[in-house]
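The pair is set out directly below:
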Amino acid sequence: MTHTGLPDTFLWGVATAGHQNEGDNSASDTWFLEHTTPSLFREPSGPACRGYQHWETDLDLAAGLGLNAFRFSVEWARIEPERGVVSAEALDHYERKVDGCLERGLAPLVTFSHFTAPHWFAAAGSWTAADAPARFAEQCDRVMARFGDRIAYGVTLNEPNLEQLLQAGAKLPAEAEALKTRMLAAAAHAAGSGTYASANVIPAHRQDEFQAAFTRAHRAAREAIKARRADLPVGVSIAVADEVALPGGEERRDAKRAAVYDHWLREARHDDFIGVQNYERIVHGPDGEVTPEGERNGMGTVIEPESLAGAVRYAHEVSGVPVLVTEHGIQTPDDAQRAAFVPASVEHLAAEVRAGTPVLGYCHWTLMDNFEWIFGYGARLGLHEVDRDTFERRPKPSAKAYADVVRRHRGPLADARS
């Protein structure tokens, strides 16, 4: 154990995602939707952060912070851009990235699908198609066959409950829901298909159908990954707000948990860990959600450093398996908020571990400002800013704040690496 009560094996990382960071993911469903008229996306992803080219620089940045883990996704749309056509170049690329992590002392945490999928998959029924689990299992198998022997953790799906969370909290206005439906209809027409869907733009009336489909895909992926390597820890990552009840608000809080999290937390009982992605606390009163006084983040909710520990505690209570914090951060243009928020949140997390909740590691979202889906490049969550013309990465004060936290917890281990 470290002097701060966290195990020496604790993973300190950053999380990234292929489509949001790499750029030019042109064979993907999200790319197609960004270029559909009408589109819910504020702007196209385009070159993103040019992470596909600058991956070595990015791994150096992570190692330079004293980290020992790096979460990234392998992009299915790059590896299988057309049905049955496998790109050796893309597999080579991700293999180099895994080896690059290991060379720098970073445990590779691989996400097999971070929302995006190939365009051909989206036009052929997407995740609800009868053969979708088998297609995804094939993709997981080819990734595992190439470098599965060298990765540290496998995350099958990223936030399959995101849409339930958005709808339960009424985060998307009615006009956005209507625009989503029009965009998907236009995409189906443009693709010459009867249907078009993507993992993070699901119409409200198809939520239950997609939850069942994602569950089948997760199980098929887990089986395929374990068939190649039985000892690899595998799990799913879900979005978990810290749901807190004031007196009289318990019933509303419990209903929200049942609608948004509990299916996946029960599913995780068959996994090796549950990935938790936490960005906010929601307070429930007897008459609905309550907004407490306090400083707000860019999502409009009050900044609460205790929210991560609360989300982790609940996830473990229901799932019974260890927690890996696969994402945690704060959307804000004011980096001083981030620089204060990260250390405070980690201290509450460490206290939760000392109290007995098993936590495997912490990944901050994200290494650098990137493409934040329908919000485009407007949302800021990175430890580094990115020049949109030169793609130069520049550290913000929060990068040093996080490095200081890691050094304090890892002690001489971090100093030896940095």
Observations:
- The mean pLDDT is 96.
